[in-house]
Design brief:
heterodimer; A: alpha+beta; 5-stranded antiparallel sheet; 18 strands; B: 4-stranded parallel sheet; 8 strands; 49% helix; 10% strand
Chain lengths: 474, 388
């Protein structure tokens, strides 16, 4: 058994077994290896190398908030770092920490529906897809469909401030979350009332949205739900340029009743789709998705059509949208690049106000193109005041080796982050910061904001046992 | 199998570096809550074993027992147009461990039982003698051979008899019944390809000797082995068309007529993993639909591990797996589906493993084997029986 020898592991193991049961704690190497990575490209490259440097020391599977609290008390007593872990779908290295105790939350899997309030209380270990299936069987939807929903768990979706593709109708995680339960670093169990709108001091529920396991271990989330929509419909438009498409999207986002889904691909990312469906070369593609009552959807479609036409958009039916829907979870193109020994690919999602969004897109594309084989960009998750842009890059190191690929990848991320910040964007819209984007966190928040975040961490977790180092917090 | 084999290398590299879009479909992950049950993590362990970074010890052996070869991950693979099957590397690792002296107690038990009975489940002679009464036909060239699967004889002998009657009703006859057959389902997935190949050769020779045109397997798992694994993985083709019972009945559906007494009856179908994910066969539900019986829902995988091996020789987290899956099936069948005012009136299982486990978990909703249920819904005739 490879086990760090600088702590009193045997004693800790016994104490943890006493707290959660012997079957719910493991020091076996083959068990710990399952937690060596999330889906951050650096972690994937390390897996390719067989690099064990991020191996945790122990894994526990608590079955209740009380058991999580007991684990926290033991970890604090021994100054042992804790890493909350859900589905392992994080894409920024948020759970990468060698030698700590992984708290796998998947046994926290209870689900309760409150039909009066239209909320669901879900344990932090509930898989996103399973939650949606469970709700669908009862006639409801959570409406939260991130690309990771097949593997992500509820706790991680809250802790990374996630968003789903139909956010135009159902909102972001911060909109969905009405209350939560979390175990604090002092072992206390925090339970917020499921009343999201209160004037009773700062909103403590929201403190945990995007906290990435630094402030507490989320054990349950209370989320809004909706009756399953009567209908789901699609429309597709093409535009002669990304600028025109973006103007149309802004007008749609600032109109009454925007669609549930908005995806505008820039000219470069549109190429494949444009060819596949026989649309004019050089144009960009806009997919709009609508959900809800049939009459509302009809009205929404009628609203967006003249807006698109005003910006030289051409209606293209729904075929390209149905194609996207079928392949919406397909990330195989990026994975294939990551499989190459010297290859790396990632999707960087940033945000900017409307008056900076196009500049951020252009700057990030310009920064990445010299370093990449391909750069694809699309805009989604739009609001009246801002929008997000995905910048997907595929790069190849000169040497066909994973270490070289990591260096190349990090150079790409650095170039992209600096370009984003220089143009007034925010470095993350919904993937979080983790360890992948932490070098730019101070620039993101500004000196005062960075100090404030550090002070919060110090006040909440003075012994720094919860996911130390995440977001650059130490 | 050599770990440097190109196809194994591809699976190592593709599955180990993945976004895990398949895990929501994995029944083992769902029911054990273990990250180590993720297909990608099993691939990683196998790869590390192949690269010499992990020793073939008991620790690794236990971690590699999670996969039940249901095929659900391949069915929902992120590579939509070229789905990847992780199980070859799991089988390779299990075989490597067994050859290194780390065979599980379960494998030793399987071997001992096969030596004693010819199958891992039970002494099948009494059940087989009963079944022979229902298949009096002689072996005819081009005729239909029914494979008397060991699991069905051991756990669902009445279902086996009902299958023969139903096949006769659907126009298959005279039917020839094989000797009791173990097709090697557990041996194959737990890492004994040589013994599985020996069994496959025996079955291939029996089919050739009988000159059968069609082989109908009582067990869906056998249909998958005979149709896909034997020819594609072991290089042993079966010289006949291979079908499950439900596929065969579907082909003869025009001969069946319905007189089920309850027009509001709805069924919840529990498919075998082998049918749902590996053969992509939905004949069981489609036949019910053709007979005018509403399907209130379905489950695409079945419990079977503990049913097969009651001594609990699997790693400590797995004995609860069957019970958990069976309970989920009953819960799903009991739920009011969005399309109906009532929960299912019956749970119908296509495999003996599921029948055994779900019956134990469902005190309220009646649980039937598929053949008996269909027979009970058909117009009673000389070979028919009423659904009880």
């Amino acid at each position: 058994m490879a086990f760090p020898q600088h702590r009193n592991e045997a004693e800790i193991l016994d104490q943890l077994a006493g707290a959660v049961g012997r079957d719910a704690v493991s020091a076996q190497r083959s068990v710990r290896m399952a937690y060596i990575r999330g889906t951050w490209p650096v972690e994937l490259k390390c897996a390719q190398l067989g690099d064990p440097s991020a191996l945790p020391a122990l894994v526990v599977w608590p079955g209740s908030a009380q058991e999580v609290s007991a684990v926290v008390d033991i970890a604090r007593q021994h100054h042992f770092p804790l890493i909350p872990y859900g589905g392992g779908s994080g894409i920024v290295g948020g759970t990468r920490l060698a030698g700590g105790i992984v708290i796998d939350c998947k046994r926290l899997d209870g689900i309760t529906l409150n039909e009066t309030n239209q909320t669901v209380s879900a344990g932090s270990g509930v898989n996103g897809w399973h939650l949606e299936e469970w709700l669908n069987q009862r006639g409801y939807t959570c409406g939260h469909f991130p690309q990771s929903m097949n593997s992500a768990c509820v706790g991680g979706l809250v802790a990374t401030a996630s968003i789903g593709t139909f956010s135009g109708r159902y909102g972001k995680m911060d909109d969905l979350l009405v209350g939560l339960e979390a175990v604090l670093p002092n072992g206390k169990i925090f339970r917020s009332k499921p009343i999201p709108r209160r004037s009773a001091g700062p909103n403590l529920t929201q403190l945990f949205v995007g906290s990435e396991g630094a402030f507490g271990i989320i054990t349950q989330a209370d989320l809004r739900v909706w009756p399953k929509p009567e209908t789901r419909e699609w429309t597709v438009y093409t535009f002669p340029s990304t600028s025109l498409g973006l103007s149309a999207v802004r007008a749609i986002a600032q109109s009454d009743g925007p669609p549930a889904l908005v995806r505008l691909y820039d000219e470069a990312e549109s190429v494949g789709r444009i060819r596949h469906f026989g649309y004019p070369e050089g144009h960009c593609l806009l997919i709009l998705g609508f959900e809800g009552r049939a009459d509302t959807v009809r009205w929404q479609k009628a609203q967006v059509d003249p807006v698109c036409r005003l910006h030289q958009g051409t209606f293209r039916g729904e075929e390209a949208a149905l194609h996207w829907f079928r392949y919406r979870f397909d990330t195989s193109a990026m994975l294939r690049y990551n499989q190459k020994p010297g290859g790396a690919a990632d999707a960087l999602e940033v945000a900017a106000p409307w008056d900076r969004l196009e500049a951020v897109w252009r700057a990030m594309r310009a920064a990445l193109e010299p370093l990449s084989d391909q750069v694809h960009c699309h805009f989604s998750h739009v609001y009246p005041t801002e929008g997000s842009v995905y910048v997907i890059f595929y790069t190849q190191a000169s040497e066909a080796a994973p270490r070289a690929a990591i260096e190349r990848y990090q150079a790409c991320v650095q170039a992209a982050m600096e370009a984003c910040l220089a143009e007034g964007g925010s470095i993350s819209h919904h993937h979080g910061i983790g360890r992948g984007k932490q070098p730019w966190m101070e620039a993101e928040l500004g000196p005062a904001g960075w100090d404030l975040l550090g002070a919060l961490k110090q006040a909440i977790d003075p012994e720094d046992i919860l996911n130390p180092g995440v977001m650059g917090l130490v | 199998m050599n770990p440097s084999n190109a196809s194994l290398q591809t699976v190592f590299q593709v599955c180990s570096i993945c976004h895990d879009q398949c895990v929501s479909a994995c029944p083992v992950t769902e029911n054990t809550h273990r990250q180590g049950a993720y297909p990608s993590r099993l691939a990683t362990l196998a790869w590390e074993l192949a690269r010499g970074n992990l020793a073939p010890d008991a620790d690794l052996r236990n971690s590699l027992q999670y996969c039940i070869h249901c095929g659900a991950c391949t069915d929902s693979c992120v590579y939509i147009d070229q789905p990847v099957d992780v199980t070859p590397v799991v089988r390779w690792a299990r075989q490597t461990l067994a050859e290194a002296g780390q065979a599980t107690g379960q494998m030793r038990q399987i071997s001992a039982r096969i030596a004693q009975w010819g199958n891992p489940y039970a002494d099948l002679l009494p059940a087989y003698q009963e079944l022979m009464k229902a298949a009096p036909g002689a072996c005819l060239p081009g005729g239909t051979l029914v494979l008397a699967d060991a699991a069905e004889l051991a756990y669902a002998p009445a279902a086996a008899q009902a299958s023969l009657r139903l096949l006769a009703r659907a126009g298959y006859g005279p039917l020839t019944l094989s000797e009791p057959v173990y097709s090697g389902w557990e041996l194959w997935q737990f890492g004994d390809p040589r013994e599985t190949a020996r069994l496959a050769e025996g079955i291939a020779q029996a089919v050739a000797g009988c000159q059968a045109g069609t082989v109908i397997t009582l067990s869906p798992e056998s249909a998958y082995l005979l149709r896909r694994v034997y020819p594609e993985e072991l290089g042993i083709p079966i010289p006949a068309r291979v079908m499950t019972v439900s596929e065969a009945v579907q082909a003869g559906i025009d001969r069946l007529s319905v007189s089920h007494p309850d027009p509001d009856l709805s069924a919840f179908v529990v498919y075998s993993c082998a049918e749902a994910f590996q053969l992509h066969s939905r004949a069981a539900g489609e036949v019910l639909g053709s007979l005018g019986i509403a399907c209130s829902g379905q489950q695409d995988y079945q419990p079977f591990h503990r049913s097969s091996f009651p001594e609990g020789l699997l790693p400590e987290t797995l004995p609860a797996l069957d019970r958990s899956i069976a309970e989920r099936i009953v819960q799903a069948a009991s739920a009011r589906p969005a399309s109906s005012a009532c929960p299912a009136g019956a749970i119908v299982c296509t495999s003996a493993f599921a029948l055994k486990a779900v019956r134990e978990a469902s005190p309220e909703i009646p649980v039937y084997d598929w053949s008996s249920f269909v027979l009970g819904c058909c117009t009673p005739g000389p070979a028919g029986e009423k659904r009880n």
